[in-house]
Design goal:
Elements (H helix, E strand, L loop, with lengths): L10 E4 L4 H12 L4 E4 L15 H16 L3 E10 L20 H14 L9 E11 L5 E12 L15 E3 L11 H7 L1 H15 L13
Parallel strand pairs: 1-2, 1-3
Antiparallel strand pairs: 3-4, 4-5, 5-6
The structure holds inosinic acid.
The site of inosinic acid (IMP) has 15 residues, from strand 3.
Length: 218
């Protein structure tokens, strides 16, 4: 039985300065009667992502916010892991696009690396997107929920929808890339959706409404 609860009023601090992410997460939490604000609203800095895993980075961001603000905080970390590249770009997915956030170039870098790994002319194109979501309490307690979606990479990129590596990723059981498919469909099946499903189960187990003051774990 998990004894950790959410704060009175069910308010969660989102440990991200990315407005799109804050909005997307906020929209999901509203359905549970929770409200949220973000570290940007409080003028808090995001820490450097120094961990070696998605979960490690999500935990470090959530904990930094929880400790600085004294509030239950939520952070995420995500990226593309390519089998033939030993999981790269992985936690460096955003960095492979450089300061210009040039994902055409990042996708080409992945494709070139894949070709270089070809064995007897056969390229192993398997890859997956991973998303880790961490919920941290001000006493240092952290819970992490991870979602993944397996698929394969195509070349050249296809589709103008989505973002990042979406145009080269075809999820298992689908024909279209994430960049071609209806975004609503992507959001239902994605790594992020799967991590959120687990988080929402956990949140709905908490006594959000009428939680007592000691619920915030201090
Ligand atoms: P972060 O979690 O904001 O650090 O993002 C990591 C990077 O992973 C993003 O900049 C994208 O390059 C990539 N990424 C994460 N999720 C997706 C996705 O759903 N589609 C495409 N790229 C993604």
């Amino acid at each position: 039985m998990n004894t950790k609860r959410l704060p009175p009023g069910g308010r969660i601090l989102i440990a991200s300065h990315n407005l799109g992410k804050v909005r997307e997460i906020g929209a999901l939490l509203v359905g549970l009667g929770l409200t949220c604000d973000s570290v940007g609203d409080l003028g808090l800095e995001e820490p450097e992502e120094t961990a070696a895993t998605f979960a490690g980075n999500a935990e470090l961001k959530a904990l930094a916010a929880a400790l600085a603000a004294g509030r239950v905080s939520l952070a995420d970390d995500s990226g593309l892991a390519v089998d033939a590249l030993g999981g790269a770009p992985g936690i460096y997915s955003a960095r492979w696009a450089g300061p210009e956030k040039d994902f055409q170039s990042a996708m080409k870098t992945v494709e070139d690396a894949l070709q270089a790994e070809a064995k007897e002319g056969v390229v192993d194109r398997r890859a997956r997107f991973v998303c880790a979501l961490s919920l941290a309490w001000p006493d240092g307690h952290v819970e992490t929920f991870q979602g993944e979606i397996a698929g394969h990479l195509v070349w050249p990129p296809r589709g103008e929808r989505g973002f990042g590596y979406d145009p080269v990723f075809v999820p298992e059981g689908e024909d279209m890339t994430f960049g071609e498919m209806d975004p609503d469909h992507k959001h239902r099946i994605s790594h992020r959706a799967r991590a959120f499903e687990k988080l929402l189960v956990r949140l709905s187990e908490s006594e959000v409404v009428g939680a007592s003051q000691d619920a915030i774990g201090r």
